[in-house]
């Protein structure tokens, strides 16, 4: 019941320079009957923003009255990566040696916030639930660690998908839990839940 809402929410996105450069934003209205109405959209060209500083933006909504006030900071993406099995970070002897040097005992206090990193190889899933009428699913896998979230591509019409991807996360809290969730892609609708596993870092 507000025409001037304040959310004060923070979202972290992993932005890679070879990906889409536009941040798309939508504002929606929902009433008690679960009816939703689009109140407006706007876009931010990430490449036009100065790096390593907080940018205060007032964005007018396209074709609708009103505007959004946002703070957007673009910083180098360190420690987070997605790669194929053949080029995973720990597979390169030189990179493995640099990592070993970085986390050796004598460098323990060089950067207190740099606890370490986690490398996860997502190979495949077996005997997934059939979510479509065809008896198949369109599965993709989402990995979450703290505020970091990465996901695989979708393998269509398959109950035994193979992704063969390597994900690297910086560890900010050794008590975090890695959550791995499998969803079925469902076009414009929200994805269907196919299963989940939680792995505490302390158990690795």
From TrEMBL:
It holds the Pfam family C2. This is MCTP2 protein. PROSITE patterns: C2 (PS50004). GO terms for molecular function: calcium ion binding. Residues 1-59, 93-204 form the C2 domain. Belongs to the MCTP family. Keywords: Calcium, Membrane, Metal-binding, Repeat, Transmembrane, Transmembrane helix. One of its GO terms (biological process) is regulation of neurotransmitter secretion.
């Amino acid at each position: 019941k507000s025409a001037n809402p304040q959310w004060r929410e923070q979202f972290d996105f992993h932005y890679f320079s070879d990906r889409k450069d536009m941040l798309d934003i939508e504002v929606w209205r929902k009433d008690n009957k679960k009816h939703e109405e689009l109140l407006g959209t706007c876009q931010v060209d990430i490449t036009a923003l100065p790096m390593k500083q907080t940018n205060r933006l007032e964005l007018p909504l396209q074709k609708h009255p009103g505007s959004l006030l946002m703070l957007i900071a673009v910083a180098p993406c360190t420690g987070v990566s997605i790669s194929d099995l053949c080029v995973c970070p720990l597979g390169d002897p030189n990179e493995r040696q640099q990592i070993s040097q970085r986390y050796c005992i004598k460098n323990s206090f060089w950067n207190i916030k740099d606890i370490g990193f986690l490398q996860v190889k997502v190979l495949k899933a077996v005997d997934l639930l059939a979510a479509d009428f065809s008896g198949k699913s369109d599965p993709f896998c989402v990995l979450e660690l703290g505020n970091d979230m990465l996901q695989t591509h979708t393998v269509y019409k398959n109950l035994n998908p193979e992704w063969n991807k390597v994900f690297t996360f910086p560890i900010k809290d050794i008590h975090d839990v890695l959550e791995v969730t499998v969803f079925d892609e469902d076009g414009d609708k929200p994805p269907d839940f196919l299963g989940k596993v939680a792995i505490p870092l302390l158990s690795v």
